[in-house]
């Protein structure tokens, strides 16, 4: 419902009206806080936590399979995959809403940051297809082929998990000490 108020000449919608919603009510002022989206500032530390947890689960999975504990290995690997999917959803949500975050550090540390970020980003793109192939081979009980691809997937996935936390800490530090 659209209403034109005689005193302001502006058109307003029903959601701008007083809660009683009658057409004679004066428009309720809308505040900037009301119009702004919910703060997503909690997502970067959550993303870093999810990345770190994924790394821990990957390492535990490796320990368990080396000890012959297949069920524990399977649980850790499914956990790492689940946490990584949650991370990806959270990461994409944050960056679609907020955009990119610039690193404010300078000098040699900036070069180190950019090198870590570049390798992290390139390898992160490889993790989903590698993880899926590795998982499918395990589910089909093709353990010889699973083991072969896991030897490639594991170090890449672990590197991406660890460098994800490093990138977050470096970004956080660059803003704490510009």
What does this structure look like?
There is one protein chain. This protein has helices at 32-35, 43-66, 70-98, 108-139, 143-176, and strands at residues 2-4, 11-13. With 178 residues, it is mainly alpha-helical. The protein has two domains: 2-33, no CATH class; 43-176, Cytochrome c oxidase, subunit III, four-helix bundle (Four Helix Bundle (Hemerythrin (Met), subunit A)), CATH 1.20.120. It has a two-stranded antiparallel sheet with strand order 1-2.
Number of domains: 2
Q: Using only CA atoms, what is the Rg?
A: 24 Å
In DSSP terms, counting alpha (H) and pi (I) runs of 4 or more, how many helices? 5
> What structural class do the secondary elements suggest?
mainly alpha
Instruction: Please name the CATH topology of the largest domain.
Output: Four Helix Bundle (Hemerythrin (Met), subunit A)
Annotated CATH architecture of the largest domain? Up-down Bundle
Summarize the structure.
The chain is mainly α and 178 residues long.
Looking at this protein, list some descriptive labels.
2 strands, two-stranded antiparallel ribbon, disordered N terminus, single chain, elongated, 178 residues, 5 helices, Four Helix Bundle (Hemerythrin (Met), subunit A), mainly alpha
Topology record:
Blueprint: E1 2-4, E2 11-13, H1 32-35, H2 43-66, H3 70-98, H4 108-139, H5 143-176
Antiparallel strand pairs: 1-2
């Amino acid at each position: 419902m659209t209403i034109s108020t005689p005193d302001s000449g502006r058109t307003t919608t029903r959601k701008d009206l007083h809660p009683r919603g009658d057409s004679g009510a004066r428009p309720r002022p809308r505040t900037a806080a009301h119009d702004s989206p919910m703060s997503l500032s909690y997502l970067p530390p959550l993303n870093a936590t999810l990345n770190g947890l994924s790394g821990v689960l990957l390492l535990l999975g490796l320990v368990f399979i080396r000890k012959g504990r297949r069920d524990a290995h399977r649980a850790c690997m499914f956990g790492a995959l689940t946490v990584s999917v949650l991370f990806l959803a959270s990461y994409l949500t944050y960056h679609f809403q907020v955009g990119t975050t610039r690193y404010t550090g300078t000098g040699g540390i900036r070069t180190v940051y950019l090198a870590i970020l570049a390798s992290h980003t390139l390898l992160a793109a490889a993790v989903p297809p590698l993880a899926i192939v590795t998982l499918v081979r395990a589910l089909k009980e093709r353990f010889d082929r699973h083991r072969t691809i896991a030897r490639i997937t594991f170090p890449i996935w672990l590197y991406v998990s660890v460098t994800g936390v490093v990138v977050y800490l470096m970004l956080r530090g660059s803003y704490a000490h510009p």
